[in-house]
Specification:
10 strands; Heat Shock Protein 90; elongated; Rossmann fold
C-alpha cells in the first residue's frame, strides 16, 4: 500500500477519533478485532466432515469473505502500522477466491461467472492481497449489480511486461453520463436507477495507479462493458540454485546416535530416516533426559532440537562442552527450524558442530550431512537432482517434494496412522491458538506456536512453518494488534494443511 492508501486510512482514523476520542478509537479497534477473531475462529472450528457439498462450499465462502473482511479491518484500525512488505500473489489463486466470494450473489441473479487464466500468467509482486481484492470486488460487484442476468467473464493474460486482467459483463454498459464521471469521487450519475455511492471505480483506479498500473473502461460493440486492469508483472529475479536431494542412501550402521527431540511427530520422521540408513539410535524427549542418557551411554553423535522443555538445546550444548572429559568433544548437530543468522550465531557459540534445517529435505541428504559433521568430509552429491517446488503466498501450501520424501520414509503400512497423528496434532494446536487468543495468554501462545513450527516442518508445510516462527517471535511481548492477524493466518493455514492430509489419506 502506498501514500494515497495511507492517507485514505489516516483520514478515516482522524475523523473517527475526532468523533469518539483517541481512547475511544483504541477501545473500538480492540473490540472490533476481538469480535472478528471470534467469528473467524468459530468458522474454522466448524468440521467439514458430514456436510453436503453445497454446505461445505458455502462454509468455505464464508471463511474466504471473513478473511478478506479481517484484512480490511486490519487496514482501517491498523493504519500505516498495519502495512507489510508485499509477497508474490498467484493470480489464479486470487481470482479463484474472488469467484468463490461472489458465487452466491451471481447464482441468485442468474449470472454465470466464467474464469479464464492463461497458464503462463506471472505472479504479482506490486500489490498486496487486500488491495487486489478491493479492486476486483468492486469491479465484479458492479458487474453483478448492473447486469441483472447473463454472463461475467474474468480473464488474465501476460502482455509484454504486464499482467492484464479483464472483467467483462453482458449488461447495458456505461451510459454517457457515467463515462463522463468515470473514476471521479462519488462519480455516480444523478439519473442512475441503481443504488450506490459512486466510489467503486474511484477506489479501484486509485489502488491500480498507485502501484504503477492502468485501468480503462469501454463498452463492447455487442453490448456490455469491459474493465481492463494492467499491473506490472513480477520482476525477473536470479534465484540461487537449490540444493539437490541426494538419492543414494549412505551407510550409518557404524554410528550410535542420540536424538534429542520433544515433538513426537518429528521423532517418528527422523527415526524412520535413521533406521533406513542402518543407524543405531536412542531418543530423548527433553533436555534433561538428553543429559541423563548421554551420561549413561557412549554415542558417536548427538542430533538435538534447540527448543526443548526443561532444558533447551542450547543449554545441553553448553553443559556437554563444559565437561572435563573426552565426551565433551562429541560431534553435536542442531536440528532446528530457526535458521536465521542470529539463531545460527547462538547455536555456534553454544558449541554445535553444525546445523541441519527443518524440514529435512530427504533421507540421503540427512545422512550425508551427518557424515560430513562426524567425519569432517564434505557430503558427496550422488544421484539425480530433484527440484523442490517453489513456495507460494499461501499458508496452506505443502511442499510436495518434501511431503513425498516423508511419506516414503514412513512407508505405506504406517502412513495413514502417521497422518492421523499429525492431523490430531494440528487440531490440538488450532484449539490452543484460539484459546490463547481469547485469553491473551502469551505463554500458551508461544508453546502452541513452537509445536506448530515442528509439526508443520515435519510434513513440508513450509509457509505455515514460517508463519508459526513469526508468531512465536511476536508473542514475546508484541501488542495484540500485531499478533492477531498472524494468528488467524496460522489457524487458516492449519485448516488447509489438514484438508490436504485428509485428501492424502482417502486418495
Amino acid at each position: 500500500m502506498k501514500s494515497e492508501q495511507i492517507n485514505e486510512v489516516s483520514r478515516f482514523e482522524a475523523e473517527l477519533s475526532d468523533g469518539i476520542g483517541s481512547e475511544g478509537f483504541a477501545l473500538l479497534a480492540h473490540d472490533v478485532r476481538s469480535s472478528m477473531f471470534g467469528l473467524l475462529g468459530s468458522l474454522e472450528l466448524i468440521a467439514d466432515d458430514g456436510l453436503s457439498v453445497d454446505t461445505r462450499d458455502r462454509l468455505n465462502r464464508a471463511r474466504t469473505s471473513g478473511a478478506l473482511l479481517n484484512d480490511l479491518l486490519k487496514l482501517v484500525f491498523g493504519g500505516s502500522e498495519a502495512l507489510k512488505s508485499f509477497t508474490s500473489l498467484s493470480v489464479a489463486d486470487e481470482i479463484a477466491l474472488l469467484e468463490q466470494r461472489w458465487y452466491d450473489q451471481a447464482q441468485k441473479a442468474s449470472i454465470n461467472i466464467d474464469v479464464n487464466i492463461s497458464p503462463d500468467v506471472e505472479a504479482l509482486d506490486v500489490i498486496d492481497r487486500t488491495g487486489f481484492h478491493r479492486i476486483f470486488n468492486n469491479l465484479v460487484g458492479n458487474s453483478i449489480k448492473f447486469s441483472g442476468s447473463g454472463n461475467i467473464s474474468i480473464n488474465a493474460i501476460n502482455s509484454a511486461d504486464n499482467v492484464v486482467i479483464t472483467v467483462t459483463d453482458s449488461g447495458p454498459g456505461f451510459s454517457e453520463s457515467a463515462l463522463a464521471k468515470l473514476f471521479q469521487f462519488r462519480g455516480r450519475p444523478e439519473n442512475s436507477k441503481q443504488e450506490g455511492s459512486g466510489l467503486g471505480l474511484y477506489i479501484s483506479e486509485m489502488l491500480v495507479t498507485d502501484v504503477g498500473g492502468t485501468i480503462s473502461v469501454n463498452n463492447n460493440d455487442e453490448g456490455g462493458a469491459c474493465v481492463t486492469v494492467s499491473f506490472p508483472s513480477a520482476s525477473a529475479t536470479v534465484k540461487a540454485p537449490k540444493p539437490p536431494h541426494l538419492d543414494a542412501l549412505p551407510d550409518l550402521s557404524h554410528l550410535n546416535i542420540l536424538l534429542a527431540e520433544d515433538n513426537v511427530t518429528n521423532q517418528l520422521v527422523v527415526t524412520q530416516m535413521l533406521k533406513s540408513m542402518g543407524a543405531k539410535f536412542q531418543v530423548a524427549s527433553d533436555g534433561v533426559e538428553t543429559l541423563v542418557m548421554f551420561e549413561q551411554e557412549n554415542f558417536d553423535v548427538v542430533l538435538l532440537d534447540i527448543e526443548m522443555p526443561r532444558k533447551s538445546g542450547l543449554e545441553v550444548l553448553r553443559e556437554i562442552r563444559a565437561r572435563k572429559d573426552a565426551k565433551s568433544g562429541i560431534p553435536m548437530i542442531a536440528l532446528t527450524a530457526y535458521v536465521m543468522q542470529d539463531h545460527r550465531e547462538k547455536i555456534d557459540a553454544a558449541g554445535a558442530d553444525g546445523l541441519i534445517a527443518k524440514p529435512i529435505g530427504g533421507i540421503a541428504q540427512l545422512g550425508h550431512q551427518i557424515l560430513e559433521y562426524v567425519h569432517g568430509t564434505p557430503a558427496k552429491i550422488i544421484g539425480k537432482d530433484v527440484q523442490i517446488e517453489d513456495s507460494v503466498d499461501d499458508p496452506g501450501y505443502v511442499d510436495r517434494t518434501i511431503y513425498d520424501v516423508i511419506a516414503k520414509t514412513i512407508g505405506s503400512d504406517f502412513l495413514e496412522e502417521f497422518l492421523d497423528k499429525v492431523v490430531t496434532d494440528f487440531d490440538s494446536i488450532k484449539l490452543g491458538l484460539i484459546k490463547a487468543e481469547t485469553e491473551e495468554n502469551h505463554s500458551d501462545w508461544r508453546n502452541h506456536s513452537h509445536i506448530l513450527i515442528s509439526v508443520a516442518g515435519a510434513i513440508g508445510a513450509t509457509n505455515l512453518q514460517h508463519l508459526a516462527q513469526e508468531l512465536n517471535k511476536l508473542t514475546s511481548g508484541s501488542d495484540m494488534h500485531f499478533i492477531q492477524p498472524l494468528n488467524l493466518r496460522c489457524i487458516g493455514g492449519i485448516s488447509q494443511v489438514v484438508a490436504f492430509l485428509n485428501s492424502e489419506k482417502t486418495g
